[in-house]
Structures are given as C-alpha cells and as structure tokens.
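Structure in, sequence out. Go:
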C-alpha cells in the first residue's frame, strides 16, 4: 500500500529538522566506495571479537524484518522491468534506522520484497543506501539481506553476514534462487526441491547466511490447517541446512492491525493467539513437535514495518512493539551467532526488558539455546531459574504493563516425529504456573526457582509470560495489542546420559 503523506519519509516521532540532520539530505552523504572500505575493516574486527567466547555479551534488542522504500513495484510492460520505489514500504532505510534507535534497538535488518530482476535493484540502488545509513546511524548494527521469495513457501528472512562481499553474496543467492527474480517468470524456480537446493548452496558458502520463515500461518485456514507453509517443508529445509535454516517468526509483524480495524498480523483467515502464530502459541503444537525431535529451531518477533498505523498502515515502528533480544556482544558476527544458536527471547509491548532462563545439574548448567548434559551419576532432577526484569517506566503505548503470570513449559525429546507433517508433541505440558506471589525481588529483577524431578530423560524447558489472565492465549480479535502482551523464551535442552 502507498501512503501519500509520508513520501518524504518523516516519521511522527522525528521532526523534519532531525530527519534532515540524520538522513544527510544533500551533500552530507559519504561516497559508497569509502563506506564499503569501512565495512571491510568492521567485518574483520567482528571476526576477531567473535573468537572471544561469551565475554562481554548482553541482551541486545533488534528486528530482522523491516521494509523500506525499496519494497516497491515493477512495471513488467517494459523489458527489463522498471522499478518504482515507495509503492509498498515507504520509508528510507535511514529513517527506519533512526526509529529503531529511538525505540531501543541496537541491531536491525532491511528486508525488502523481491520481484523480477530485483536482485539488481538490491545491488545497485538499495545497498548504497544501506551503507550510508550505517554511517549516519552507527549505534544500530544494520544487516544486509532481504525478504526472500522462498521457492514453494511464503517469505523468509535471508540475512547475509557482514563482510566485504555481502552485496555480491546476496545478489548471487537472489538472482539464482528467488522464485520471482527471473524475467520472464520461471515456474521451475517455485518448487520444494529448489528451496532445498538454495539451502544447501547457502550452507556451503564461506559466510553462512541465516534463513528464518516469516508469518508462517498467515495463509492457514484453521487451527492445524496450514496454507503455504507446511511442517514437512520446515523439516526438509532444516535437514538440508541445520545451521542456516534455523526457525520462524513466533510473533509476526503488522501487530497494529486492530488499531485500524484490521486483523492482527494480517492473519485474516485464521487469527493469531496473543499476537503469536499458532505454530508457536499452541502448547504441544508444531514448534514443540520440532523441538521434541531435538531440532534447534528458534522463534523471533518482528515488526514487518511498511507504513506506520498513524499514517494509513497497520504497522508499528521497528522496536516500538515487538523485539527480538539476542545474547551477544554488540557486533555483527556475535549477533548473528546468537540468532543461529538460539540465545534469543522475544517479547511484545516491553512487558519485560530482560529474561534469563538457566537449567542447572550437579556438574554444570545451560542457558537459552544451550544444552545441559547430565552425567551418569547425576540425580534425576535439575534446578531451573527464571529471572525477568520488568520495565522501569512507560512503554511506547504510554502504559506501565505488569507481568501477571509466568508459565514453565517442558517437553520430552523423543526422536523423529511419526511423519514429516506431524505438528504435535503430546509430552509437552505447562508444568508450573507462577503469579506475583511466587517470585521474589532481587535488585531490579524478579526471580523464580523450581526443581524439576523428572530429568531422567532427554527434554527441553521453555518459558512464557503474559500481562493477561488468559490460561492459554486466546484467538485474537480487535482488542488493543497493548492490552495483550506476552514474552517467550527459546528452549534449554537437557540430555540425560
């Protein structure tokens, strides 16, 4: 959609004077060649820092699904097609970076739509703008990539590691594999086999990208009645490239829909649940089925920002409502490593600003994304600590939300599912629910401790919390998203030897 009121890219929270100052309209832009050189130096430094293990890591909030004015349209009556920017996403890349910084993000990613010959648009037009934005808003690490037209599937994040040839790497992958990049259209690109080929190619690259599925149940017509994205496609892709194809959006973007009378997330056929996709929100559902196989399959939360809801769209700014928190150093390599390895929790409405989940045995412990391996002499129990930090002030909605409940969820890891389209894990249960009387204050944090006494089998532990009194997240209607807030951790695995 197009919003004629925002063609200058001015967001409501930033004045024209500020935007001109930060966006560098006119002669303040730095030459792209100089910026590319800076990127090389930065990438080398990132590689060096990445060897430092866990030292210096903290929670860094970000968003890997943001659209700019380079999400446009193509006039296919010409050959080659003529690209018109600003026809879907409307904001300059630097505007999104400014707003991401304003709402507390320290990393973000521009993920513009593809189309016929879009690989050249990315390479020749959008990438130089990203380089400028990196210089103008250095506080936000800005990854290069796109919203990939995945063969046989809905859109996916394709995140490229930060290195000297990042633009050429994206061009290679998009031009070869994006299902709509060929002109004329090539139906042979739009197959499951082509998606697997793409993932295997990505896996074998020196700089391994990340691939994360977007709004996976947007085309579903019922609970467990999936549309364009199906369980077997996730399994086949993860089998082909387990360190590249690593997860899906637990909470899709477009969360401001109800503020303008639209479905949350754009899920008009079957709703989200507490703002989360059914594949994540249903305890014992598809996500738990994948985890029950031992798959390291992670969830994220994004804005999918195109046009702000106050300007005719149904989106929040990056970081205004949804955040993906990664435990990492503030460098490109370690942020990507955290996403790849599940050191991630997600939340909406800044219900909390920090979350740690640790599982401890007699001889060690593990945190989100990690694995605790129990020795043969360990007791059949593990100790679990949940530590969360409530927001200190008002969120972007002008409210002071409070956590009303935290749920501890445990499922068994039992090996391969009965079938590639299996979407349930009957072992997964909410084993404990905690209210304000069950946690204690420790500095700015609230702490919950629990002993799990059935640790004699392989399992995983995850956590969710909410501002509501819903025992399970209910199907979303047109309630304000600010009144229905949730957070989810990624799991900790326990292997009992």
């Amino acid at each position: 959609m197009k919003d004629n009121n925002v063609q200058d890219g001015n967001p409501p929270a930033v004045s024209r004077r500020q935007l001109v100052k930060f966006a560098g309209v006119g002669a303040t832009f730095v030459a792209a060649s100089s910026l590319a050189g800076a990127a090389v130096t930065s990438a080398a430094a990132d590689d060096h820092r990445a060897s430092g293990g866990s030292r210096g890591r903290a929670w860094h909030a970000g968003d890997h699904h943001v659209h700019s004015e380079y999400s446009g349209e193509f006039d296919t009556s010409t050959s080659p097609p003529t690209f018109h920017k600003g026809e879907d996403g409307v904001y300059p890349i630097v505007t999104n970076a400014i707003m991401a910084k304003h709402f507390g993000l320290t990393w973000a990613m521009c993920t513009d739509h593809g189309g016929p010959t879009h690989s050249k648009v990315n390479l020749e037009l959008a990438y130089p703008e990203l380089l400028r934005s990196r210089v103008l808003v250095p506080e936000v690490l800005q990854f290069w990539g796109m919203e990939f037209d995945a063969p046989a599937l809905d859109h996916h994040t394709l995140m490229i590691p930060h290195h000297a040839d990042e633009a050429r790497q994206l061009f290679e992958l998009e031009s070869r594999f994006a299902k709509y990049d060929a002109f004329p259209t090539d139906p042979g690109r739009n197959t499951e086999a082509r998606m697997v080929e793409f993932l295997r190619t990505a896996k074998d690259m020196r700089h391994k990208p990340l691939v994360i599925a977007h709004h996976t149940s947007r085309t579903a017509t019922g609970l467990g009645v999936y549309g364009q994205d199906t369980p077997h496609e996730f399994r086949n892709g993860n089998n082909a490239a387990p360190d590249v194809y690593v997860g899906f959006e637990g909470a899709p973007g477009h969360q401001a829909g109800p503020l303008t009378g639209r479905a949350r997330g754009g899920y008009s056929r079957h709703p989200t649940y507490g703002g989360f996709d059914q594949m994540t929100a249903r305890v014992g559902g598809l996500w738990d089925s994948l985890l029950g196989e031992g798959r390291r399959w992670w969830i994220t939360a994004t804005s999918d920002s195109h046009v702000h809801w106050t300007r005719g769209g149904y989106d929040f700014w990056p970081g205004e409502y949804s955040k993906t928190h990664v435990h990492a150093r503030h460098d490109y390599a370690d942020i990507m490593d955290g996403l790849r390895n599940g050191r991630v929790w997600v939340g909406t409405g800044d219900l909390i600003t920090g979350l740690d989940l640790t599982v401890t045995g007699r001889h060690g412990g593990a945190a989100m994304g990690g694995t605790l391996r129990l020795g043969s002499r360990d007791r059949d129990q593990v100790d679990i600590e949940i530590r969360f930090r409530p927001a200190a002030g008002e969120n972007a909605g002008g409210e002071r939300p409070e956590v009303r409940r935290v749920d501890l969820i445990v499922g068994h890891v039992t090996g391969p599912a009965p079938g590639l389209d299996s979407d349930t894990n009957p072992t997964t249960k909410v084993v404990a629910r905690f209210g304000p009387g069950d946690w204690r204050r420790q500095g700015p944090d609230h702490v919950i401790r629990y002993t799990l006494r059935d640790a004699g089998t392989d399992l995983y532990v995850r956590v969710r919390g909410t501002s509501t009194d819903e025992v399970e997240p209910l199907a979303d209607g047109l309630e304000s998203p600010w009144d229905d807030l949730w957070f989810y951790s990624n799991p900790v695995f326990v292997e009992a030897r």
